[in-house]
Amino acid sequence: MRIVVAVKYVPDINAERKFADCRVVRDPAEGTLNELDENALEAALQIVEALPEGEQESAEVVAVTVSPPEGDVALRKAFQMGVHRGVRVSDDALAGSDYFGTTAALAAAVRHLEAEGPVDLVVTGMAALDGLGSVVPALLAAELGRPSLTFAKTVAVAGGALEITRETDEATETLTAPLPAVLSVADTANRPRFPNFKLIMAARSKAIEELSSADLGLDPAVVGAAGARTETTAAAPRPEKPEVELVQDKGEGGKALAEYLIRNELV
Amino acid sequence: MTNRTVLVLLDPADEVRSSVLELLTIGRALGRVEAVTLEAPSVEALAQLGAHGVETVHQAELPAELRGDARHLSAVVAEVLAAAVRRTDADVLLAPSTFAAKEAVALAGRALGAGVIIDAAGVAEDDEGRIVGTKRVFAGAWDTSSRVTTDVAVLTVRANAVVPQPAEAAVATEVEGFAVEVGAALPTVTSRTEKERDADRPTLEEAAIVVAGGRGTEGDFGPVQDFADALGAAVGASRDAVFEGWFDRYVGQTGVTVAPRLYVGAGISGAPHHRGGMQASQVIVAVNNDPEAPIFEICDFAVVGDLADVLPQAAEVIRAHKAAR
Ligand SMILES: Cc1cc2nc3c(=O)[nH]c(=O)nc-3n(C[C@H](O)[C@H](O)[C@H](O)COP(=O)(O)OP(=O)(O)OC[C@H]3O[C@@H](n4cnc5c(N)ncnc54)[C@H](O)[C@@H]3O)c2cc1C
Ligand SMILES: Nc1ncnc2c1ncn2[C@@H]1O[C@H](COP(=O)(O)O)[C@@H](O)[C@H]1O
């Protein structure tokens, strides 16, 4: 069993996130592994741990990120959780990629790993917390020509097939497909593990494998700002809200709330 | 360039949801609107579409094996959307910002070689006639504009982006069938149970008012629900409240993103993940017994107090106000 987990390097949600020149500022001091990709890593590791004895030893989990070198932070975190290998796809030509450019780079990295041996499963998070697109997993599945099983709440791999359940806005569903497939994992699927001391120590010395767009044979016309089909033309912080009107409840707080709503024609 | 054709996804087709009416309102400002659907629209739906200026509904005819539960798979919806864009020569494709529609639209963009904007809060055109989507990002802290540089523009638009308006003149609406082939590798849908929509309350995604309860309810959503009903609001929760099993749907970055006219958070601290899903609301009100609660930083109005006291009292005053009108 070989599993590739796509992990994104994003600005920390608790830090002050900003744009400069219409691009997201990726300050290395405040960049981190996309939290939702911890659910993806956890799912991948659990799938391996559920394999019968004998298959576990030969299993391999590879974390792949498309990011500038600062993105190693995300791969280190993946090592700490227990993945075997970390691959970073970096190239100035990739800067400014849209969903399609990012997907092309991820797909090329998966194919590159497939040259060594089959990749049974590609696992992703349900969304990247910077852009909240939730579209890369489905696009990646299409690009790789594999079935897409996204937004999983429960995950099971058995007999060469993947089965998930999911809860969308509309319905509760069970989906299955033979491997190889693409899986995205919802934040409700699991509780990501805390790394133990041993893994933290081991993660420090693990080598990160670097690939360029030339290594992957990526067409410069489809990636980066050159290939992007959308361009951000303006980004501005929203004006500060006026000071909050704060009422201490001394028995009339509910009345004050209702009167505020009535006064502002919100009722 | 108002001779554009704007195609709007209608799914389901037995009712026209307010999110679809909003898309039609946005679409009419850009050009001529048409709709695409995967099932036969109801008589009521057709009348409503006519009132909103839709002359043609393009109804996909799928191969037999895809007419059941599989028809909801995003890869199937995507093929329908792409085929409908080609058939109508549409310039813009609009869909609501649901998880499934985001995927379908992105896949359609892939098939069409079109630029995709997810979660637009507004759609307009620039001086060169290119489609521009505005977005609120980073938990509502930044406004961005993105321009689509391809001839076809594909967008999902979040609810409450505009107030839906009927067309100046109603039109007669016709349904035209068209055959769609699906080549994508698909999973098998072994079971699908549609969620019941609460008939007494608006849905969380589309509501003009949302009242959400958090850990501070200590498991009793009674006051939250009663206050919501006094306002005619949808009810939501924080993720912690849902994980505790106190309610079924949560607002936030990984839950439902809402941007209503009014959002009320009761017993919710205002963690960044929660804020990311509601900070674009027009007016934000909170009830929290901790004067240091982070949610107060983004509020317009707040009461420091126990929600079990504050909400029932507020509901009573609101009901009396409504009765007196
Ligand atoms: C990857 C990830 C994704 C997440 N996505 C989401 C998401 O989409 N949505 C989401 O909501 N959360 C999300 N979370 C969780 C989020 O980080 C917070 O943990 C959660 O929002 C906190 O919920 P809460 O405000 O109900 O609880 P708390 O933070 O515990 O706050 C409870 C509040 O209630 C107040 N209170 C207590 N008693 C009373 C009373 N009697 N009357 C009035 N006030 C009272 C307290 O002062 C406190 O401020 C996510 C977390 C992770 C890691
Ligand atoms: N640049 C990237 N590098 C690696 N994985 C990514 C990247 N962008 C997106 N992903 C994966 O796709 C998921 C969804 O991202 P998105 O569609 O951007 O919200 C993430 O949770 C990641 O698993």
From TrEMBL, chain A:
Residues 21-220 form the Electron transfer flavoprotein alpha/beta-subunit N-terminal domain. Keywords: Electron transport, Transport. SUPFAM superfamilies: Adenine nucleotide alpha hydrolases-like. The keyword Transport applies. Its cofactor is FAD. The keyword Transport applies. Pfam families: ETF (PF01012). Belongs to the ETF beta-subunit/FixA family. The electron transfer flavoprotein serves as a specific electron acceptor for other dehydrogenases. It transfers the electrons to the main respiratory chain via ETF-ubiquinone oxidoreductase (ETF dehydrogenase). PANTHER family: ELECTRON TRANSFER FLAVOPROTEIN BETA-SUBUNIT (PTHR21294), ELECTRON TRANSFER FLAVOPROTEIN SUBUNIT BETA (PTHR21294:SF8). Heterodimer of an alpha and a beta subunit. This is Electron transfer flavoprotein subunit beta. It comes from Isoptericola chiayiensis.
